[in-house]
Design brief:
- This protein is of the alpha/beta class.
- The protein has 6 helices and 7 strands, in the order αβββαβαβαβαβα.
- The longest helix is centred in the N-terminal third of the chain and has 41 residues.
Amino acid sequence: MRRPTWPAAKNHTAIMKRFLPITLLVAFAVAAGWIVSIAIEVRRQSVIDEARAADVIVVLGAAEYRGRPSPVLRARLDHGLALYRRGLAPKMLTTGGAGGDPVFTEGEVGRAYLVGKNVPSEAILVEPEGASTAESTVAVAEIMNRTGLRSCVVVTDGYHIYRVKKMLERRGLMVYGSPRPSQENGWLRQWWLCVRQAAGYGLWRLGIRI
């Protein structure tokens, strides 16, 4: 095959430069469309309560303040506690690492809070190391597999449930979502949270753990 002459090669380079922005624009549009479609699924899942009988109730961590749960974490724990008292599962599992606290972890603070609400300590499992949703779900799956638990009710904020369910289902678990009661956010705020979760889910699919 004859190599292109210099003018032909130069024209080829010019054509590539001309089409590169179009290619990038198309790729961006496809990615944006995919994120929007996932955000719609995140929003749909966020308002569905699937609570039912399972092996364990998993309460996702949130901020703690020197050993006391933040309002968000307390709301998640209280919702998980209500499900436990309904007899939906014989065990609870709290998650979350230190988040910069040199003494306490979110998982341990959650456990202490539940024990203070008369949940037997032996009924509570703790995942105290996860620094992100991805890390916590991996650890939760390992704990569940190690202890023979195959199904769970996940308690967290509504917009968070879709991503957590997908991560745990990928590891072969049966997962039901139960969003904690929360104050109504404005329409734009709700969709912004859903888009963020969709983007996080997309990065996880690409192998980027956040």
